[in-house]
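Morning F.,

Quick status update on the modeling queue. The single chain you submitted on Monday has been processed. Sequence for confirmation:
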Amino acid sequence: MCIATIITTFIASTFGILLLSSPTSAAEEFFKDKTIRFVVGFEAGGGFDAYARLIARHFPKYIPGNPTTIVINMPGAGSLVAANDVFARAKPDGLTIGTFTGPLVLQHVLGLQGVAFDGRRFGWLGVPIVDHGVCFMTKGSGIKTLDEWLASKRPVKIGAAAPGSTTADIPKILRAAIGLPMQVVSGYKGTVQIRMAAETGEVDGGCWGWDSIKPTMSNLITSGEINIVTQNMMQPHSDLPNVPLSINYAKTQEARQLMQIISDAYGITTRPYAVPPGVPQDRLQMLQKAFLDTLKDPEAIAEATKGKMDINPVDGQTVAKIFASFYDYSPSLISRLKEISGATK
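Structure tokens below.
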């Protein structure tokens, strides 16, 4: 055999071995016939659960190896139980994907007791939708508009989950920023329970994402049993052209800064999906791509549209950068947020 043939054979053989052992091939082989768990930090029936089940149904199409998926609900402490579990207890193999309220990362920055993770160390896959924060009031509350809420002679009862959740933090920030009279009633497991409490008159309303309220409370909106009284983002949602923006009631620089935090921390990063620290980079990248591909899937989009669920995904790298920015907040801003949240007295 001539030298040229030997060299050619050696190069081809070596290149083939490299291909067979490439990171992508290894990741594809790993997921073959495995089961991927989606751990949801809230009970079944709420917005987080609805999005997770939609994604889980279509996710296997975009992971080589024909894996199956299951959804596990792990409610508790405003989804903190699930966040801590995914971070510290789940194997870093790419077979566990958690979804919990993203503002818990901000609570880690603020030093909330019980937060046992570092938001900079998760492997972030992305978010399915940028939350558009709103507050609603029940018909029984007697409040139909933001101006009526501001003029209320009594503290309006707002249902909330644990500190660190969107449902608890947004009302507290609104109270500090624009002076809304309210009593934040914490302790509910999630939005399902808050909704039930509102229907029975136990609380007057709640504050969380329109993208969750829209598919889960549409019958109450249509019947007039609840009214959306304010939007807590910088720009109005196309569905709510006549509902006022809270930012327009912010009179000071600090108030506007707090409203910006609501928009940033409780908007784009509200519904993140993450894997534990240490998942091999090739698997993480495969999961990140599959996450975005799932949310572009025509069947998934059609199903979401039928269920009145909006889809507007943000990639994992962008989400990771936003979470990392929370750790760069100034000491004075962190101190003020601690005061508002009750992390300090």
